[in-house]
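Thread: Newbie trying to understand structure tokens

Hi all, I'm a second-year student working on a class project, and my supervisor (Dr. K.) asked me to get a predicted structure for one chain before our next meeting. I've only ever worked with sequences, so writing a 3D structure as a token string is new to me. If someone could post the tokens and maybe explain what I'm looking at, I'd be very grateful. Here's the chain:
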Amino acid sequence: MSLDPLASFIETLCARAFSVRHRYLVAVQGPDGWIASRLAALWSPQGNLQGCWISQTPPSETAYASDWLRTDRSRQVLGQEFDRVLIDARSGLEPDALGALSGTVRAGGCLLLLLPPYEAAAATPFQRWLQHCLEQPSGTDRAAWLLTPETDPTQLRQLLKQLPLNESAAVPKPEDPDCLSDDQALAVAKICRVLQGHRRRPLVISADRGRGKSAALGIAAARLMQQQPCRIRLTAPSKAAVASLLERLYALLPDAEIQRQGNRVVCGASELEFVALDRLLSPAFDPQLEAQAGVAELLLVDEAAAIPAPMLEQLLRRHARVVFATTTHGYEGTGRGFLIRFSAALQQLTPQWRRFELQQPIRWNCADPLENWVFSALMLDAEPAQFQESEFKPSDLDGGALSFRCWESAQLLANPSVLKQLFGLLVLAHYRTSPSDLRDLLDDPARQVWLLSESDRSGVSVRVLGVVLVATEGGFDASLSRQIWLGKRRLHGHLLPQVLCAQAGWSQAAELSYWRVVRIAVSEPLRRCGFGRVMLQRLLVEARQQPSIDVLGTSFGASVELLPFWSSQGLQPLRLGLKPDGRSGSVSLLYARGCSDRAESLLRQIQRQFSRDLPLRLQRDAAMLEPELVCALLADSLTAAHYPLEPQDRQDIESFLLGNRGLQLVEAALQRWMWQLLPTRPGPADQSSPVLNPDLDLELRALLVRYLLQQWPLERLLSEYGLSGERQLQQRLKPQLLPLWNGSRSLAITDGED
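---
Reply by user tm_fold:
Sure, no problem. This is what the structure looks like when written as tokens:
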């Protein structure tokens, strides 16, 4: 193909795209020399056309250097728009970057993808999947155009003639002059209503990219600031994520009326302030104390799906008027999984919450070819199989109706429907699932995919009920294990052996081989029916049959709902993280059980050490853990065995409960009693949540955990629970603790005993 036909093709394709406000993908695949000779035809923006060139190294041609951005910095251009975006993927494609950058191409533009020659024998599974997607035409409006040295220019011209032209290109103008679609105008009205209507009725706005979601937040904020005195707080995973929101806000507020002061925008008696998440969630930041009389308060949370659910729940608890906005199919995570996970908290805390979804695109037309191709190729629109709640039961696995087995990447590629079902299941089960997870799932040789699926008579999987992703880790020699233990080596991956070796301090731990459960998910209608436990049981049997596997374990964000699931299968806590995890917002917990004799011996020692260290950890690193989580964790530890009550402890406790001895004088004895009294009782095998000790009031248990186990300073404790002093604290504790003491002691107590 000569230069002119290629340049003519690009020009004609973009002209067709502009006429219908569509966008296309053009993949150029071939040897480096051939691609280099055609760059001038590919990259020839004229006039006011804008371009962005993404690659690991700068383009050799200086004429393109001004458009260049390194791949790992590509997110800097999110929120901007270009006529052409070029991604040089000849040294490897980053799926997240492809998904993100596709949203920066404006209507009438194209996304150019440079690829090395395709060699099926040497291609990774993900590369084979991508090639399959590039070679599949999508009707007359082909979404992806694959150009190689063998491409026939005549055939290209014929295919171009089949593209739609001048069909529904115009976007209906909404009545609201500030908005670009009726959907956006309706979203603005709903956002304003959150501030002006009843309290505790949060709004969740979801939309795919290009629908004007963030701009709607900016329009609503500008209107509210001009209509009434208000204070609007804005937060997001980063300030860069709200650039388009602030741009719309500035455009609608007259320069003469606003003042910009760092992260604050002041307009008359109103102000908007961007507040970073860590500050907003800090105990020192109290929205109630900062509230001003007669000034309405509103919190806007943009890109909520990229924020850990525990953090969102804290925001919901602390603010009476909140708007959460999230991207439905996102490169950082999915709003669909976010809604499933977060809706439970919304329903519990604010049952009158509302949801609105923007569907009408603004930056491009409906049925956009590029958007459809990216969603399909990166499986952002993958859906799990549909089930009825009573359609299957765990015992069907024994009867042959269900199967649980490991699937190789080649098998998944040969069954695209199965691949899409399992990825759709992962998307809904974990809202931070991203396109890169699809690549890792297919390409990582240490990753295993175990599927619980329906089977037909020939044994071919039909529908996927559940999935367990497993990573093989560890098995290092003694020399490397010692280097890890000394902190001189850090290997990519291998989470469990390196945490137990380098952080917990057990040098032998890195010599063991592990199966780590990375993710476990069950179809939504079948959750809490025992399928997760059945999959874990089968996986444990498989691990025990592998002579090379010593340990089955996992690491997860600690929550009171998850602990009984893992402990019911014999896994024990071995490590508590030092600080909240960036993904989950929770402190991480490492649970494991031995599959070999040498592993069981070592894990018993690690578990005993964990139990001995837990009291100190609760007073320092884990001082902010929720009391119910502390109690559930105690139920899985051996802490009580390390702190038995001595005769003198009993005397001290009785002197406090029956006499006038001061509380602080008997704290140590009370603390040892709490190790025995507070642990949560494990729930039955078919429950996913623990059974709380029925003899303890929830508020009392929280108070005891904070004071005696987490060692909160007395002043802070009194402030937290609204107590005037130590005397009032004693008056609150004594009448509730005395019946518990009478029920737990082994000897009868009378008022006259010593």
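A couple of things are worth pointing out once you decode it. The chain is about 40% helix and 20% strand. Residues 597-619 form the longest helix (23 residues). Feel free to ask follow-ups in this thread.
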